[in-house]
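Support request, please re-run this one:
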Amino acid sequence: MKELELKYGCNPNQKPSRIYMENGAELPITVLCGRPGYINFLDAFNGWQLVKELKKATGLPAAASFKHVSPAGAAVGLPLTDTLKKIYWVDDMGELSPLACAYARARGADRMSSFGDFISLSDVCDVDTARIIKREVSDGVIAPGYEPEALEILKAKKNGNYCVIRIDENYVPDPVEKKQVFGITFEQGRNELRIDEELLSNVVTANKEIPEAAKIDLAISLITLKYTQSNSVCYAKDGQAIGIGAGQQSRVHCTRLAGQKADNWFLRQAPQVLSLSFVDGIRRADRDNAIDVYIGDEYMDVLADGVWEKTFKVKPPVFTREEKRAWLDRMSGVSLGSDAFFPFGDNIERARKSGVEYIAEPGGSVRDDQVIATCDKYGIAMVFTGIRLFHH
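Re-run finished. Output below.
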């Protein structure tokens, strides 16, 4: 197949639309089910690059949950704790494969953003992973292959219209990439930068100690940023992104947005949230939305009399600002990556409130000394990579 006609482009009025190879070669993908659209393919191809690189860097199966050409979550296949199984809603599924654990992490980190995602998997999709995908609202999946039973599970999703794409894992794109804007063609060399431990060698703070687990998390954050719309910041912990701030014009807004998502990830593990008792038959999306509101500032939207009864069996107590802060103060060992330099120490001030202890950023700001001094004030170890990771 050398080209594939699409229903429309980014919007229904943008026709005609297709994907094809400019050199006349065969497309490196096969559509096994459904009819993927323009944005689906953008998510699929960006996500595939991300998970392929994550696996190469860590040696572990990887998964990404993409929405609107930025990852909502990305992770490698480390085992899940009982708490994570519960907040990711897979505690009823028994032991899961490493790939399934990777997707549970990628999907579960920011469930509000992952709703209706496009999934990317580094390895052949197994039955465990397909079982998780089956129960979630999702647009499609791309992987290098599918176990026969897993493929049947996926083909039955959305009344047979779920998008399932197989990609040739040996496909290598041309070293120069092109895009058009306003009828004008842009051309650049592909970003083939390899993110590895050597990139994390220039520790510029007084604290030089970065444990191996944190180095893996820093690599995950940087690889995730490589395929996230800029400006972007990524918080990571225990083998997964826990907060991604994408497409913000101000870097401190990226840091705040990603930090708020990381805080929500940790707040969902608090006893007050784990003990919430939901009414029978509540939809997964409604439950996720209720949790998000409950741990936020607008909690009365779900706790008001005449309202809470629609969601909870028992009215939950207010999760006070003081209780939330006390719980968040327990968060530690978080790694943070930034796709460009931090221009002010205010980014560090915000990051440390979410348990950040390790940072990787390019460096090169005229205020690097201020940023380093702020890190030193809190004992944070920071690496200057010397490499910017803008993606548009």
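The chain has three domains: 3-172, 193-267+328-384, 275-318. The mean pLDDT is 96.
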